[in-house]
Amino acid sequence: QGVSSAQLGQRVAVLDFVEPSAKGTRWGLGGTCVNVGCIPKKLMHQAALLGTAVKDAKKYGWQIPGPVSHDWATMAGAVQNHVRSLNWGHRVQLQDKKVKYLNLKGSLADEHTVKGLSKAGKEVFLTAKNIVIATGGRPKYPTNIPGAMEHGFTTGLHSDVALECAGFLTGIGLDTTVMVRSIALRGFDQQMAGLVTDYMEAYGTRFAWKSVPKKVEKLPSGALQVTWVDGQTGSEARDTYDSVLWAVGRAPETKALGLDRLNVQLNNATGKIVVGADESTSVPNIFAFGDISEGRPELTPTAIKAGKLLARRLAGQSTELMNYDNVPTTVFTPLEYGCVGLSEEEAERRHGKDGIEVFHAFYKPLEFTVAERDASQCYIKVICERGADQKILGLHFTGPNAGEVTQGFSMGLQCGATYSHLLQTVGIHPTCAEEVVKVGITKRSGLDAAVTGC
């Protein structure tokens, strides 16, 4: 947003400061996504996919000498080097666009003044016509569990990232267990969530369902012993692990911003800033966007888009608001899951069971055939309004390159695509994406949804 505002002729200062994590970790310019989120996660997911590709390669005639192993240090070093290059790129971009970058921890002194505090304790005050808050959130620990903070570390996100991490750890050959308190992928379509976890279990990831961790203890050997309660039987169980990773969400970075002094309205339950459709807060010249804002998707591209649109409005160049409907996303699990629009549960809640039509198909990616890989969880679901137009309400896809497949179809949903539009679209053969435009069996019919032929 800062760069966008500068490009529109605004005078801009950006305050960016990273408090050390509970384990003392710091990172560079670029926020969560670049440093400890999307980018390193996707690269590690790619490392796991390459491991699967090596196994598949033998079926395609490649002669692989001896057992293949993975070296964590090599991967971690390469990922960190790439992240550092992005940090540097962001710094250069700010300089090129004449944005004043300050490595200071910011808080509000008054509605037009920001106080910046350096690591050495020096205070700097800046005044501005408008102030924009985009501080995101920081990882939460389950502090009610003894040993959680002392012996564990955290992704700071929810079950989607937990499954992504478990998936790439399994993929590079590490013994991995996921403990699920209630359901996997809360907020996502639950049929699709089941397909994702079914595939992961077959892939080698273990799951402890309906289980609640009770304590973490470090044994003399250095191993971590986790004790949990099995929610289905009520009995206690325990096992030992090398590492414990928590994925219980993030807390918004609002407490130290001085928002209470200015009566910036927060949601008492979440601690997030209450914003209007134009990202405005209860104080007219203070705005907020991204993960810090109540009710917004916690997704980097959504925040980037919202920030750019806000920059244009503040510069008087536009009145366009961010459209938070039909935001696509992908979960980068071993079998990727991409979706846009409503889940089947949400569509049914809004329109009623008789008000929707669900078209679906089980398909087999061509890449899986020669490799003799199980494709029983490769699935497509298109949820439509039931009626003359059959407007598409949601699209869900599990399979290879799910993000690439979903991205294109998301534009169709933004344009109000109907099931008829889908059928009028010519597929690219042979691809997984073409199966989306061929989907023709409804759940209501009860017919076999397995795709046959090439």
Automatic annotation (TrEMBL):
<feature type="domain" description="FAD/NAD(P)-binding">
    <location>
        <begin position="7"/>
        <end position="307"/>
    </location>
</feature>
<feature type="domain" description="Pyridine nucleotide-disulphide oxidoreductase dimerisation">
    <location>
        <begin position="327"/>
        <end position="438"/>
    </location>
</feature>
<dbReference type="InterPro" id="IPR046952">
    <property type="entry name" value="GSHR/TRXR-like"/>
</dbReference>
<keyword id="KW-1015">Disulfide bond</keyword>
<dbReference type="GO" id="GO:0050660">
    <property type="term" value="F:flavin adenine dinucleotide binding"/>
</dbReference>
<dbReference type="InterPro" id="IPR036188">
    <property type="entry name" value="FAD/NAD-bd_sf"/>
</dbReference>
<keyword id="KW-0274">FAD</keyword>
<keyword id="KW-0285">Flavoprotein</keyword>
<keyword id="KW-0712">Selenocysteine</keyword>
<dbReference type="Pfam" id="PF02852">
    <property type="entry name" value="Pyr_redox_dim"/>
</dbReference>
<dbReference type="InterPro" id="IPR023753">
    <property type="entry name" value="FAD/NAD-binding_dom"/>
</dbReference>
<dbReference type="GO" id="GO:0005829">
    <property type="term" value="C:cytosol"/>
</dbReference>
<keyword id="KW-0521">NADP</keyword>
<dbReference type="InterPro" id="IPR004099">
    <property type="entry name" value="Pyr_nucl-diS_OxRdtase_dimer"/>
</dbReference>
<keyword id="KW-0676">Redox-active center</keyword>
<dbReference type="InterPro" id="IPR006338">
    <property type="entry name" value="Thioredoxin/glutathione_Rdtase"/>
</dbReference>
<dbReference type="InterPro" id="IPR016156">
    <property type="entry name" value="FAD/NAD-linked_Rdtase_dimer_sf"/>
</dbReference>
<dbReference type="InterPro" id="IPR012999">
    <property type="entry name" value="Pyr_OxRdtase_I_AS"/>
</dbReference>
<dbReference type="GO" id="GO:0045454">
    <property type="term" value="P:cell redox homeostasis"/>
</dbReference>
<dbReference type="Pfam" id="PF07992">
    <property type="entry name" value="Pyr_redox_2"/>
</dbReference>
<dbReference type="GO" id="GO:0034599">
    <property type="term" value="P:cellular response to oxidative stress"/>
</dbReference>
<dbReference type="GO" id="GO:0006749">
    <property type="term" value="P:glutathione metabolic process"/>
</dbReference>
<keyword id="KW-0560">Oxidoreductase</keyword>
<protein>
    <recommendedName>
        <fullName>thioredoxin-disulfide reductase (NADPH)</fullName>
        <ecNumber>1.8.1.9</ecNumber>
    </recommendedName>
</protein>
<dbReference type="GO" id="GO:0004791">
    <property type="term" value="F:thioredoxin-disulfide reductase (NADPH) activity"/>
</dbReference>
<dbReference type="GO" id="GO:0005739">
    <property type="term" value="C:mitochondrion"/>
</dbReference>
<comment type="similarity">
    <text>Belongs to the class-I pyridine nucleotide-disulfide oxidoreductase family.</text>
</comment>
<dbReference type="GO" id="GO:0004362">
    <property type="term" value="F:glutathione-disulfide reductase (NADPH) activity"/>
</dbReference>
